[in-house]
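Sequence in, structure out. Go.
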Amino acid sequence: MEALLAIGTRKGLFLARSVGGGPFEVESVRFSTIAVPSVAVDTRTETPRLLAGIEYGHFGPGVMWSDDLGKTWEEAEAPPVAFPEHTGASLTRVWQLQPSPSEPDVVWAGAEPAALFRSEDGGITYSLVEGLWDHPTRPRWQPGGGGLCLHTILPHPVDPARIAIAASAVGFFRSFDAGASWEPANKNIRAPFLPEGAQYPEFGQCVHKVAQHPARPERLYLQHHFGVYRSDDFGGTWTDIGAGLPSDFGFPVAVHPERPDTVYVFPLHADMDRTPVGHEYTVYRSDDAGATWQGLPVGLPNEPVYSSVLRDAMCAGEAGVFFGTRDGEVYGSRDGGETWTRIAGHLPDVLCVRAAVI
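Output:
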């Protein structure tokens, strides 16, 4: 078995490989000096395809792909993700790249300003999903601290007509007709930053990240600006599960690939502090769908730390559980978080982490 770890940073993409359960070997940087805020490892075909959302500075953002595990990279002749002229919008960032588990050639892209794009050629070119762009609530959408970003895409694993997205600070939306129409789905998600009496709006929640269990797609976990939630009906209703955490503020959330009741979060001191609780790196795990939580610090630094973990800088999958920090540290666990090993250090600010068995 070979595991591949893709680490997008503020200054380039780093790939790390592990063969036969051995240590990860970090390769030389790709796209040096260029930010890589999104990355995907598409394993649906015999030869995995790497997809990277990159930022060229004043040349603008784009998406590149590699079919030889990062040795060479290609880009479409025309800008692959671009807003049609009639929208009057311009692309700021590609926040998310998500291959569809139910449609072989489809890849979804989440963008800023909050928009969803669809590719039908394996992630080479993309078209705007007009149904979400034209949603009647859009004129009232407001950006979060990171911008008006669509950062989460959850295509249903077997039914391509069902797809959900989350954007900050727009909330959680879902579609049952392949993106032609959309409905807000934020019932019971409290927005404490709004005035009393208006803290449970139809939309406008500051959702930081949502994770879906691949074998139980109705089960969703959501990290809000203040609060951790679970849904058992694809976002129809949400239940607050953050009571057992030292802080219910954070950015990432990840679910175990085989155990739908096992979920991981990374609590931070609330709001503007945004440093690890107790100034210690500690991943928290629940094995009972959020009823109880336990901290998992073994193998992580025991000296004070002040760096956070961003919304896409944690993942869980067949290869293990991984996270990267804003001071360039990357850690992984092959035993569900019981123990951690440092994989890389002194990297640039880690923006996203993705892992796959290839």
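Check: The chain has a mean pLDDT of 96. Helices lie at 130-133.
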